[in-house]
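Changelog excerpt

This revision adds worked examples to the README so contributors can see how folded entries look when concatenated. The first example is reproduced verbatim below.
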Amino acid sequence: MLNHQKLVVMASLGMLAGCGSDSDDPARFSLAITDAPIDEATQVVIEFTAIELKPRNGSSVVINLASPQSIDLLTLQNGETTTLIDQHTIAAGEYDWVRLAVNAEFDNVYDSYIVFDNLQHELFVPSGAQTGLKLNQGFTVAEGQTARFVIDFDLRKSIVEPVGQPGYFLKPTLRLIDLQQVGALSGEIAEARIINLCQGEKLGAVYVYSGVDVTPDDVDGRDPEPLTSVLVYRDDDRYRYHVGFLAPGNYTAAYTCDAVNDLPESDQPLVFTTAANVSITANATTTLNFD
């Protein structure tokens, strides 16, 4: 068990096809990080220190990183990832959970921090040294196989500025994705739509919801909550978006210029100009344009 003053984040893993019995023959485990971004911030840096896996039968296994990895999550947008561990040998069999250890305390060290308007603020994870975020599923790794997963930090749901505190709270909202079963959604936003609806330099964002015919809403802790969201970016005089790491299935996608006003844990009247149903297929990118 990791027993120190560090954030502990617990995330579930979807079931990976393979045998379910424990074995002395090794398997391999790879884990990467990606990010669903936040408006206004120019850096969100997290310092990762270790990964802990819990076999169903036996004590947990701690994988200490060779050195702490400071990762700016805002560099990991539009399907970009960075690897925490790659092809690490583990025992084949069933596992109950995976745990990340992160340095994120109000201690004036600034190992984890966020930057707004060129000002650096410490990040703190409430109860991070205890249970963190727990999702109750497990995963299985077959003999001789590699389990590949990516964890998506959804910063739009996570960053909170508490009253009377020296920095910001990071309440991680994570998606854990099996890379063997994943698709993507991408497309363009019509320039006229952005010019007519958006103000200043902001280009808006695309929100994605699980299921079809969802009435879009902001991030406020109440249904319907977006599964994820991405910022629109300009590329070759076109306005594009890309949502990576979606499990196969049916979704509702919606565009808004008001994402900058979306504050977690509070209800904001965002205006969504368009919503459309879309189907995602594994190992393929679905195109949806907002004309």
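The second example, added in the same revision:
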Amino acid sequence: MLDLLFLEFKKAEKEEAFPPHSTRLFVLVGNIGGREFAESLAPDVQKLLISSSCRPLVRKKAALCLLRLYRKNPDVVNVDGWSDRMAQLLDERDLGVLTSSMSLLVALVSNNHDAYWSCLPKCVKILERLARNQDVPQEYTYYGIPTPWLQVKTMRALQYFPTIEDPNTRRSLFEVLQRILMGTDVVKNVNKNNASHAVLFEALALVMHLDAEKEMMSQCVALLGKFIAVREPNIRYLGLENMTRMLMVSDVQDIIKRHQAQIITSLKDPDIRLNLSALYCFVYLLTISKL
């Protein structure tokens, strides 16, 4: 069966621009192909991904197929030379291809960020584009939020890099993060809350990772303080979880103590998840206070 699939894939590849109906082969290759199959077809999948003659649908499927192959056999992607290709993919204007490529990048940098430093400024440019809602089609806007899933993936990729040394890139990134922090609030629409808070909490994780200045850290704590005071239990839970993480940052521990009364209130909530999250946060706060 695999031999027949291999021949079918090669036949489709030779056809002009890889016909869209043949994209199902990517699913089969990614899901049932073993090491030998991955080693044989990964180079062809990479060529299709970077080919300008292929339709966006084909390139999107190729990126997801390569991601699947890479997760099974990380050595199928040759880092030498591919890192530059990966950086070029981040200039893609089609958001479907870009989102799939970003999923691939997250997997690549999680194993070896050193090979992909050239992708870091490109990731910041993507966040700038999305934060300003530039060149974002309506179909990629979710409840007024420009492609939140791509924003989350991009910020997650940046967290695998230990630091950002270039001052201009760092400044641009913090401007985007500031815009996210200032533009996120709790609204009545649950779907919009879910999307905006997914972006927000990934931004908070990135702020902590980059060891931002105290002013921005204080702003993050103030925002979390608002979240742990709302009635919606899921939002309170996320607020408490992230406030516990913020306690690891020594510069804001005194600011978090201002929200101690609200943390204690959550200890009395009938929701066991909130009880435990509040308990962890409160115990951690007391432990740090005694040090």
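Reviewer comment on example two: Residues 190-209 form the longest helix (20 residues). The chain has a mean pLDDT of 83.
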